[in-house]
Specification:
eight-stranded antiparallel beta sheet, three-stranded antiparallel beta sheet, 36% strand, mainly beta
Length: 159
């Protein structure tokens, strides 16, 4: 009965990777650029040609982790959902160049390492390493940082 008066928890979203914040519309994939999967933002990693890590932008359950490890779906306790998609056409690598530190069903905390990506594998296969963050359910894309700016992994982007 008193749950009606409970203050809804505010969930901040932090950058899952360090790099340059770019508009989703500028991503080189029409599915993301036209927001067919939802609104969001993208980050061009600044560690080109090296291994980079992708971290949890929120506390959440891992609801989706394909065997290719190129994407991860997260749902927080309030039911808000985020999809992190690493690179463009990276599903074609069939997991080559990706190492996962999580499993579907795990509960992760903001800042926890999810996946490592060998950027050399992506570059060798002429694939774009842009990381897309899609706000699938329950979030508004009200970024605190302007596009074009550099962000560090863990920079607060949405509150």
């Amino acid at each position: 009965m008193f749950s009606l008066f409970k203050k809804k928890e505010k969930t901040n979203i932090v950058a899952p990777v360090s790099g340059k914040l770019i508009e989703l519309e500028k991503v080189n994939d029409p599915v993301f650029a036209k927001k067919m999967m939802g609104d969001g933002f993208a980050i061009k990693p600044n560690l080109q040609g090296q291994t980079f890590d992708v971290y949890a932008p929120i506390d959440a359950e891992v609801v989706s982790l394909p065997s290719t490890k190129h994407a991860v779906g997260l749902r927080n306790r309030e039911g808000q959902e985020i999809l992190i998609h690493i690179g463009i056409d990276t599903v074609d690598l069939k997991g080559n160049g990706f190492s996962s530190y999580i499993s579907q069903g795990d509960y992760v905390h903001q800042g926890e390492k999810l996946i490592s990506v060998d950027d050399n594998v992506l570059k060798h296969n002429n694939l774009d390493d842009t990381v897309m963050v899609i706000l699938v359910k329950g979030y508004a894309n009200n970024l605190l940082i302007n596009y074009g700016n550099k962000v560090d992994q863990d920079t607060n982007l949405i509150e």
